[in-house]
Amino acid sequence: MLSRFLPPLLRQPRWWALLFIGLWLGFTVATLTRLPTWGLVPVAGGWLLLARWLRWGAPSRPRPERRIWPWSLLPLALWGLYVYLADSFGMVDLGAVFFHLQAGMEEHGGGDRIAAAILYTLSMLVLLASFTWLVRVDYRWRRVERLLAMALLAGNPMLYGMGQRGAALVTEDGAWLERQYVEPIILDAPRKLPNLLLLYLESIERTYADRERFGDAYAHLEALGEKAVVFDGVRQVDNTGWTMAGMIASQCGTPLMPAGLLHDSQFEPLGKVVPGVDCLGDLLADRGYTLSYMGGASTRFAGKGTFYRGHGFDRILGREELEPRLEKPDYVNSWGLYDDTLYDLTVEEVRRLERQEGPWGLVSLSITGHAPNGYPARECRQRQGEFDGVDILYSVECSAWLVRRLIERLEDEGLLENTLVVIASDHLTMRVSAWEQLVAGERDNTFILLSEQLEPRHLDVEASTMDILPTVLEAMGFVIDWHRAGLGVSLLSDEPTLVEEHGLDVLNARLREETALQERLWEGLAPPQGPPPPTEPFTEQVIETPKDEAAEAPEVFP
């Protein structure tokens, strides 16, 4: 009965199949380029016009239908997975996928993405059915379909990335990054050790400071920057673009190269996270610091609790520990606590730490700016008006206002004396409502230092989040070897960073091709294979190659 009201073309199954293929093609093009979402319409329309002209699905000289299964079904499904990841996160990072599979994904707050994944899966099944029908009915598609399958496989960026990672096994020099790595060592410390308050703002990149593109969304952080050291140009290296990776980059001075096959059991969550390197928590704990971590989301997600427990932190407080302390238990979001609640509890934790003897450090992770739309707190809604549920700039402004209010509150109570406050984005944001504006130019991360000991100023740098570790150490008054720690260089020194010397492209290429640094990160994670080799007499020998001359590892003085 419904067919009576449809145009003649849409009464034919052929056009439903071709329409669905065209819509998927248009959506793929719009997702992987800078076309707006509505750009899928002209792409799909062009596909349908071409299909009509060439009589796809209804050849002028038809042949008997063949009940075959196209070779392209698997390649199409893999492309569907890639498009889903690109639509969800903007940039597909295979390292993030592998790490989360091994570190654990329980207690995540991405319920909306699960619903989206179900819809993607259903639409992909319809696409595969439509394409199978086309190949079976139209002999011309049967002729070229195997070549199409090969082209789809070769052109899938996800599989290309896997192939590049596999090339690390046979690369000529797989240890260039490892040779740049400098063990973090504190050579001297100030007489009075300062406290540290490290505030990660989820996805609140410094790119939002561009008022021409984003208005006043970043204004409250700019106001804080008037009395702080503000860094412009802190870029994002591969394997540092999600929360856990961003925290490891800034606290350990290395990208998070997933454990992969180095993991002792591929079917259980990681028992340790980057156990082979010393990070900020290890260095401060050795100096007698009392360390706390606080975040509104579960610490079981992505190995956050495992990381902080293994690197010197005394108290790890996530959703499970903080939610019972809420006055209104139902005031939570899908991830956990809203940031106004988290920051109230942060003030309580700072008070507790101040009552204890000795220096302290507190790391806090916000949730307000989380892609795709953010989780603006109730107090922001009361102040900013109604939230439409989509506009990420609303959430950016909320996050900036909340952290400014937190710092002013702590200052008013006198809780930040002899304290370095660090404000940093954990990583660049993933796909959000302002995505086209964000990717229209260069992007950089938020990195702000607040301290009575530091002269307020803006510094233009070419750096990465790996440079945050040595910069924070020197801002606290510690003396470190050659101003370096991990792969990072202190931005308060005159030493060139790896980004400045070699560029992002070189660093990212090395990350895809090397394994030596990965082995260092996860040293001791895999069980020993067989008996240890016999020891030989030690003979010191120094061999210098041309590859080492450009960035010779510094000496370590006792």
List keywords for this structure.
558 residues; alpha/beta; Alkaline Phosphatase, subunit A; 2 domains; eight-stranded mixed beta sheet; two-stranded antiparallel sheet; 23 helices; disordered C terminus; Alkaline_phosphatase_core_sf
What does this structure look like?
- The protein is of the alpha/beta class and 558 residues long.
- It contains 23 helices and twelve strands.
- The strands form three sheets. The protein has an eight-stranded mixed sheet with strand order 5-4-6-2-7-8-3-9, sandwiched between helices. Strands 1-10 form a two-stranded antiparallel sheet.
- Helix 3 (73-89) packs antiparallel against helix 5 and helix 5 runs antiparallel to helix 6.
- The model is unreliable at 163-170, 261-267 and 538-558 (pLDDT under 50).
Write the layout of secondary structure elements.
Blueprint: H1 13-32, H2 40-54, H3 73-89, H4 94-103, H5 111-137, H6 139-155, H7 157-166, H8 176-180, E1 186-188, E2 195-201, H9 211-214, H10 219-225, E3 229-235, H11 243-252, H12 280-286, E4 290-295, H13 304-309, E5 315-317, H14 319-322, H15 339-355, E6 360-365, H16 378-384, H17 392-412, E7 419-425, H18 435-438, E8 447-450, E9 457-464, H19 468-475, E10 479-480, E11 484-485, E12 488-489, H20 498-502, H21 504-513, H22 516-521, H23 546-549
Output mean pLDDT.
85
Number of beta strands: 12
Strand order of the largest sheet: 5-4-6-2-7-8-3-9
CATH architecture of the largest domain: 3-Layer(aba) Sandwich
Number of domains: 2
**Radius of gyration over C-alpha positions, nearest whole angstrom:** 27 Å
**CATH class categorisation of the largest domain:** Alpha Beta
Distance between the termini: 87 Å
Q: CATH superfamily of the largest domain, please?
A: Alkaline Phosphatase, subunit A
- Shape annotation: elongated
CATH topology of the largest domain: Alkaline Phosphatase, subunit A
What profile does the largest beta sheet have? 8 strands, mixed
By secondary-structure content and strand pairing, the structural class works out as alpha/beta
Helical content (DSSP H or I, runs of 4+): 40-55%
Strand portion, in percent? 5-15%
Low-confidence segments, given as residue ranges, are 163-170, 261-267, 538-558
**Number of H/I helices:** 23
Keywords: Cell membrane, Membrane, Transferase, Transmembrane, Transmembrane helix
InterPro entries: Alkaline_phosphatase_core_sf, OpgB/LTA_synthase_biosynth, Sulfatase_N
Membrane topology: Multi-pass membrane protein
Protein name: Phosphoglycerol transferase
